[in-house]
C-alpha cells in the first residue's frame, strides 16, 4: 500500500488518491454510453431482423459519434490533468488502461472509415460529419467492416476485465481502487 509522501511540485501537497470531478464525470458518462452501445450491438447480434433490433439499432451510430467526442475530450483532459491523477497500481494496470484508450479510439475510427468508404452521408443528431458521394471506396469498407466489430467486442472484454480487477482489488483489501473514481467525492485527495 502506498503512503502519502510530500512531492516537490508546488501544486500538490500529497500523492493524489482520487480523480477530480471532470475525470469522474467523463468516466461515468462514457461508462453509461458504452453500456448502451453494447446493448445495441448485443441486440443486433442476438436478435437480428427483429422488432427489438429495429427499435434500438438506430441509436448505435449517433451514440458512437458521441462516444468518440467524449474519448477525444477525455484524452485531452488526461493530458492536461496528468500531474494530478492517481498513480497506477502497477505495470499491468498501466498497460490495461493504455489498451482501453487505444480501443476507445480505434473502434469508432474503424466505423468512421467504413462509413466514409460507403459513400453515405453521416449526420449524427442532425450534425453533418460526412457528406455522401457516389460510389464506394472498397478498401475502406472492407477494413472498417473487418475490424470494427472485432475491436468492439475486444473492448467489451477489456471493460469486463477492468471491472473484474476493480472488484478483485476491493475484495482483496490491498488497494480499493473504486474509491478513486467513486461519484460524489467532494475532494481530490
Describe this structure in words.
The protein has helices spanning 21-46, 51-56, 60-80, 91-118, 138-172, 178-181. The protein has a single domain, classed as Transmembrane di-heme cytochromes, Chain C (Fumarate Reductase Cytochrome B subunit), CATH 1.20.950. It starts with 20 loop residues before the first helix and ends in an 8-residue tail after the last helix. Mean pLDDT is 88; it is low at 1-14. It is built from six helices and no strands. Helices cover 63% and strands 0% of the residues. It is mainly α and 189 residues long.
CATH architecture: Up-down Bundle
CATH topology heading? Fumarate Reductase Cytochrome B subunit
Give the number of domains.
Answer: 1
Along the chain, the helix and strand elements come as HHHHHH
Q: Give unreliable regions as ranges.
A: 1-14
CATH-level-4 superfamily name: Transmembrane di-heme cytochromes, Chain C
* Structure annotation, total helices: 6
What amount of the residues lies in strands? Answer: under 5%
Estimate percent helicity: 55-70%
**Helix-strand category:** mainly alpha
CATH class: Mainly Alpha
Instruction: Summarize the main sheet.
Output: none
Q: How many distinct beta strands?
A: 0
Q: Please state the overall shape, judged from the principal axes of the Cα atoms.
A: elongated
Roughly how many Å is the radius of gyration? 19 Å
Q: Summarize model confidence as the mean pLDDT.
A: 88
Distance N to C terminus: 16 Å
